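Bug #77: duplicate submission created two jobs. Keeping one. Sequence:
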Amino acid sequence: MIASTAHRAAACCLGALIVVSGMHAARADTVTDWNQTAVRATEIANAPVPVQMRVMAIVHAAIFDAVNAIEGKYTGYAVEVASAPGASSEAAAAAAAHGILERLFPPQKAMIDTALGSSLKGIPDGPAKAEGMRVGREVAEKLFALRKDDGAAAPASYEFDKGAGVYQATPPMNMKPILPHWRSVKPFVLTSPKQFPVAGPPAPDSATFAKDFNEVKRLGSKGSTERTSEQTAIAIHWVGSEVPPLNGIARAVSAAKKLNLSDNARFFAVLNMAMADSLIAGFEAKYAYNYWRPVTAIRNAGLANNPAVSADPAWDP
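Kept job's structure:
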């Protein structure tokens, strides 16, 4: 709903980005460079948001395990690889990210190879560089294998149902849902998409439903005169993928906190795995309850059998 916690959190994040980025210039390292490269690769591929989040999680999990294999500052995530003393953590991070992205996006190999060349240019040739690259490549190979059959490539099927509160084809495109099988993708950290179950939406004939319905009807309509310009700007900003802005915020925070390579590797891995898992869990709840969109509810309010709401067949979000 319009005044949901998610929207308030989004507004806070946007504000944080403005404040932090205004105070500190970005301070790039190998992790943040590959963060931007990975985001760009998903955009070039026109990847749907769930796919974007999975890619970012795999890339940064690989970077973290590669860097941690050499520096050993934290408990590793999924892959343990032995490294010789003195190996370059920067080379490991670059090789790990490159290894994942070239496997996920073969058509972009030229761009990904160029990014690797840029990362390695400042690292002196020698045993340290070679060993770092070996570690990164091995981590990428093993982590990619672990995620290869995680359910992301499973067949996606969905059939519309009918009735009050049930999801229907949404105008103007009336398409079937994208990637409805994503609820079955193996999480990165959660034990199960159902680990933290949610209560679900209110019944259409309830007072809570009526309250939310009428708020969305007033504030969420295309021609609303009650919605503030700030609310409109926030809605427009967050209508797209969360991946670029939230990772941009993270890069700004990294620069502000002057995080080192090891801490950045962990920071971006935790962020992107949490984002990926939250979406998997969100899809689990979404398709478990199969709830209608506001445009469907408002145009067909009579189905709700709720005297506190009224239909508007011409309502647009």
